TrEMBL record:
TM regions (residue ranges): 9-33, 59-79, 91-115, 220-240
Keywords carried by this UniProt record: Disulfide bond, Membrane, Transmembrane, Transmembrane helix
Record Pfam families: Tetraspanin
Family, similarity comment: Belongs to the tetraspanin (TM4SF) family.
Protein name per UniProt: Tetraspanin
Length: 263
């Protein structure tokens, strides 16, 4: 029984770790979806009405989110099986966790093969350029694109010099720096000679790099969770065998039956 109790505690610990990691992966996928949507929502929708192509940067967060939810569901089965010492629940847990491990590895491979490459760079570049052209005629899009420039510390679509063809100076989002002195803060001049603005990368380059980093991190997290899942399977098998070898409970004889045995 001591051995079975040790497996039970270890299974609880492993499932707890997997719950934390799955929640972190789900949060990361939601964050990545919001970042991609921040760009795609500003595009000209008329350009994409008949576009049925699968864009992996938009699909990746959904893949990881679904896998995370499945992991959370299977770990709940593991908690129940360990708490109730149920061989049936442990069998279901072992089978389902094996499937989950395959799903996690598949999600990571799909991300690294189809998303962590030039297709993501092209998708981000096309999206940023579309938003950039929209900003020329739409003040709301221009304000939103300026917020993106401030957040990512980028300027223009491909480079800060993109603004030189249609503006008299850089937008303030490219020179978003304030000097705080004894008096009120004031903004610096944002002319085309501004050194800070000219040293910034274009938003397509910065956004693509952040997207590639996020894809690598989520893929690595999925593989790490898969490794933890394999450990959980091994512990569940150990607990299953320990329950199988548990000695049968002793039958307590009543007093009358004991007297019959003595006679």
């Amino acid at each position: 029984m001591a051995r079975g109790e040790g497996f039970r505690v270890l299974l609880h610990v492993i499932n707890g770790v997997m719950v934390v990691l799955a929640l972190a992966l789900a949060a990361a996928s939601i964050w990545f979806f919001c970042q991609v949507y921040e760009f795609t929502s500003l595009r000209n929708s008329n350009h994409y009405l008949l576009d049925y192509k699968l864009y992996w940067p938009q699909a990746i967060p959904w893949i990881f989110l679904i896998v995370s939810v499945i992991v959370l569901s299977v770990t709940s089965c593991g908690f129940s099986g360990a708490k109730k010492s149920s061989r049936g629940l442990l069998t279901v847990y072992i089978i389902c966790m094996s499937v989950v491990v395959l799903l996690l590895i598949t999600a990571a491979v799909l991300s690294l093969v189809f998303a962590d490459n030039k297709s993501t760079d092209d998708f981000v570049k096309d999206t940023v350029w579309d938003v950039y052209f929209q900003a020329k005629t739409d003040n709301d899009v221009a304000a939103s694109f300026g917020s993106i420039e401030r957040k990512l510390h980028c300027c223009g679509a491909d480079s800060p010099r993109d603004y030189k063809n249609w503006k008299s100076e850089f937008p303030m989002s490219c020179c978003d720096v304030y000097y705080h002195g004894f008096l009120d803060p004031y903004t610096i001049e944002c002319e085309f000679t501004n050194k800070l603005a000219n040293e910034r990368y274009g938003c397509s380059t910065v956004a693509a790099q952040y997207a590639r980093i996020a894809i690598k991190v989520m893929s690595a997290a999925a593989i790490f969770i898969a490794i933890i899942g394999l450990i959980g399977i091994a512990i569940a098998v150990g607990l299953y065998k320990a329950l199988e070898q548990r000695p049968p409970p002793m039958v307590v004889q009543y007093e009358s039956e004991s007297k019959k045995v003595l006679l």
